[in-house]
Amino acid sequence: MAFRDGPFENLKVPLVWTAMAVVGVGLIASIMLLLADGKSGEADDHFGPVRAGFTTGAGSVGGVFAAPVRWAGHVTDYVGGYFNAVEENRRLKRELAELQPWRDQAIALKNVNARYETLLGLRTEPPVAMATARSISEARGPFVNSRLIDAGSSKGVKVGNPVINEHGLVGRIVGVAPGVSRMLLVTDVASRIPVLIDRSDARAMLTGDGSGNPRLEYVRGQDSVRSGDRVLSSGDGGGIPRGVPIGVVAKGVDGSWRVKLFSDRGAIDYVRVMLFEDFGQLANAEALNAPPLAALDTAPPPTADQAAAIGDVQARRQAAAEETARRASQAAAAPPAAATPPAPASTQPERPA
Amino acid sequence: MRRPVAVRVIGPTQWIFLPALAVMAVTLLLATPVKLFGWFALPEVVLPLTLAFAWPLIRPSVLGPVTLLVLGLFLDLLWGGPLGLWAICLLAVYGGVLLSRSFLAGQETRVLFAWYAVCVVGAFALVYLIVSLRAHNAPSLLALFWQVLPTLLLFPISAWMIERFDDGDLRFR
């Protein structure tokens, strides 16, 4: 009997029900995906290869799509620069006049600092290699703040590498493909950067929330933070080298301490990836991982003279112990006398009462 | 002799696949990292929400939710969010509108816009909740507002699609 001749011959499922069933299945699949998906760039990122493959394709396609928009942006920049040239020229002259004394001081301080480092024998951090990249696309909503850049593992970029532009810290790498990487901006809701306040050396955590100005959290101490203080990376945790400029402190409308980012002073189109992993790369891992006191196993055997000396010392200690035992037994066996013989002179200094 | 009348059949290619491809292309375009005049960044709107609202009102379909699932995963991969985040949001909007389509069919544009606003705000609230739970950190409400507002302004796309493709077939009411 064919199916259409059976009891379901006249059964017609409304299309709305079918669509709702598909919606239900899709929702269940999406929830399972969401639960299974770890955070990007971390060990439990099960969809890392999928992301890498998509990122590679989106990078090239996005570059083509973005070309007209980028050209339009260059045109507007050109027009804006033309009309603002006089004002910008005045501003730059003023800044130049302000910065020239600072430049002289910086040169002098650099010289003094180098002398101190030499005198004290300080071991300074080696220079960090950089990889230059161009930003291809960006996500700038409240939920995700990230960018794709056109430098990947083929240039030595790895997950965790900090990214800077000419003004300061921009973010860090969270996903890598051979030619493209994903950079998580410091404004992202999942971003946490350990920072220090330049004036007070106080520590804090820079926490993004999707807005343009991330929050300063876990600030301890009184007067440790003021408006206008410079914020630098602290290097705590080893993710980012110490001293990378980030921004200046400002009071937010909600009363929290926030940071105006230096990286916002210019377009984040060209960036540099610091090929810096953590402090572990600065140390000799083999020396650190060597077993403790391993050198004792390699000590040479004693010579004949050393063995005789060691044996002589042992013989003298044994004779002294036997003599002490003999005297003790004689003293115990002797009869009680009227007059107690004088006690032998002690070699130990007398203790004060 | 009567001349044959050419009947144009509007299939899923016209009202599902081509709009979905257009949405993907525009989303890629809007992801361009450019600031016009040095300060005006392109808006980051969630374009597939217009499709999630319009498709169930045009006609219930199996292809609609499947395409929305694909679009949601596309957004997650493009923007770097957790996989499934926007798919849940889009499918929830589709399901909600599908359940209420008997009420919404034939209503004025103002009523449709009001329901569209409810769907958009609800979808963003859902995403806000999920992201807050995952990141242990609440996103900025001001930043959220600046993404919700331009997405609300996309309602004319949904209205145009409903007007263009709604065939008024009573079998689907």
List the helices and strands and how they pair.
The complex is a heterodimer of chains A (353) and B (173).
Chain A: H1 15-36, H2 48-83, H3 85-120, E1 130-140, E2 145-149, E3 162-164, E4 169-176, E5 181-185, E6 192-197, E7 203-207, E8 215-217, E9 230-233, E10 245-251, E11 257-261, E12 270-274, H4 285-289, H5 304-333
Antiparallel strand pairs in A: 1-2, 1-12, 2-5, 3-4, 3-12, 4-5, 6-7, 6-9, 7-8, 9-10, 10-11
Chain B: H1 12-30, E1 35-36, E2 40-41, H2 48-58, H3 63-79, H4 85-99, H5 101-104, H6 109-135, H7 141-152, H8 155-165
In words, what does this structure look like?
The complex is a heterodimer of chains A (353) and B (173). In chain A, the strands form 2 sheets. Chain A has a 6-stranded antiparallel beta barrel. Chain A contains 5 helices and 12 strands. Mean pLDDT of chain A is 82; it is low at 338-353. Chain A has a domain at 127-280: Rod shape-determining protein MreC, domain 1 (Thrombin, subunit H, Beta Barrel). In chain A, a hairpin with a 4-residue loop joins strand 1 (130-140) and strand 2 (145-149). Helices cover 37% and strands 19% of the residues of chain A. By secondary structure, chain A is an alpha+beta fold. Chain A has helices spanning 15-36, 48-83, 85-120, 285-289, 304-333, and strands at residues 130-140, 145-149, 162-164, 169-176, 181-185, 192-197, 203-207, 215-217, 230-233, 245-251, 257-261, 270-274. With 173 residues, chain B is mostly helical. Helix content of chain B is 67%, strand content 2%. Chain B contains 8 helices and 2 strands, in the order H-E-E-H-H-H-H-H-H-H. Chain B has helices spanning 12-30, 48-58, 63-79, 85-99, 101-104, 109-135, 141-152, 155-165, and strands spanning 35-36, 40-41. Chain B has a two-stranded antiparallel ribbon. The N and C termini of chain B lie far apart (37 Å). At the A-B interface, helix 1, helix 2 and strand 1 of A face helix 1, strand 1, helix 3, helix 4 and helix 6 of B.
